[in-house]
Design a protein that fits this description.
- The protein is mostly helical and 321 residues long.
- The chain contains 14 helices and no strands.
- It is globular and about 55 Å long.
């Protein structure tokens, strides 16, 4: 088991995040599905915690890689999501866990900015920057579980403004510089930030603007379509830990649409059947993508799948830890 734990890559936190979010997406269909996703996420998360305890030097070394350093924010995002599962049973402890996760994410933003933005290089920029600076909006999405929507609303505006800046920066980098195969699945992250911001806004705004929400939703769907056009090519790549990018981005897109349709209905508009079918389709895609990434990760950790390739000429390739 120790050998398995040593193989656990930091991006596994992205899979746990996708699972916890998927459970919340499916909660309306079945509590069993929600708790099944939450349990699976918790078990995988314990593997990551075990690696942190048993192999701290490996984790520390990983943070010299800007991809791993930025994607590590999914660790705190997962904790925020998991706290919404446990708050029914342990409200005080869960609130403390939620605050700790938010504080940890804030600390990561400060550390990452000091470490990587202070000595800025465009080649160090990846879509994972969205995770560091916009991912904290998960606090907005989960804040209602703890009656902390006022704090969540402020966090939404920070994340949204950070997203506007990061969108320009990341897009310029992706257009100007090539990415190694190991980083190409990260393109899927493009569909997450706008949807996450919309979900955070609709969760925390006391009187959400339908016009503003509509603009965000249309933009989110355009980005989703762009990612879908690249998905067949990305799925042909061999396994890399960056497969974690196949999870949460697709789930949060469906969650944002779900919340937008709820707002539409609450505003007195009849929800067109085509939008309901679109939500069903995006939910199915989210389930398939999370399931696929989970199976590939389990095969990597417990099966006979050989270690993924590493491109020696590209120092920013994802490491095998």
């Amino acid at each position: 088991m120790k050998r398995v734990i040593e193989k656990v890559p930091v991006p596994l936190a992205g899979v746990t995040l996708g699972l916890t979010a998927l459970g919340n997406l499916l909660a309306g269909l079945s509590p069993v599905l929600r708790w099944g996703c939450g349990t699976a996420a918790a078990l995988l998360f314990f593997l990551l915690l075990a690696k942190l305890i048993l192999f701290p030097e490996k984790i520390k070394n990983d943070f010299s890689n800007p991809i791993i350093a930025s994607v590590s924010a999914t660790f705190f995002m997962t904790l925020m999501q998991l706290s919404t599962y446990t708050c029914v049973f342990f409200p005080t402890a869960s609130l403390f866990l939620w605050y700790a996760a938010v504080a940890g994410h804030c600390a990561l933003i400060l550390w990452f900015s000091w470490t990587y933005l202070r000595r800025f290089r465009l080649s160090d920029v990846y879509p994972t920057y969205f995770i560091t600076y916009v991912g904290i909006v998960v606090a907005s999405v989960t804040s209602a579980s703890f009656d902390r929507t006022a704090l969540g609303y402020g966090i939404f505006w920070f994340g949204f403004l950070a997203y506007l800046a990061m969108l320009v920066l990341v897009t310029v980098r992706c257009r100007r510089l090539p990415m190694a195969d190991s980083a190409k699945p990260l393109f899927c992250i493009y569909t997450a930030p706008m949807s996450l911001c919309l979900a955070g806004y609709l969760t925390t705004a006391t009187a959400p603007s339908l016009a503003f929400a509509l603009i965000l939703e249309v933009a989110a769907q355009i980005l989703y379509i762009i990612v879908l056009t690249q998905l067949p090519k990305l799925l042909r790549l061999p396994f890399f830990p960056s497969y974690a990018a196949f999870t949460f981005p697709f789930v949060i897109t469906a969650i944002a649409l779900q919340k937008f349709l709820t707002l539409l209905s609450a505003s007195g508009f009849a929800v067109p059947s085509i939008l309901s079918l679109l939500l069903a389709g995006e939910t199915i895609v989210a389930c398939v993508m999370v399931g696929y990434a989970l199976l590939r990760y389990l095969h990597f950790l417990f099966g006979s799948l050989p270690p993924f390739r590493q491109t020696a000429s590209v120092p920013s390739s994802l490491p095998n830890s």
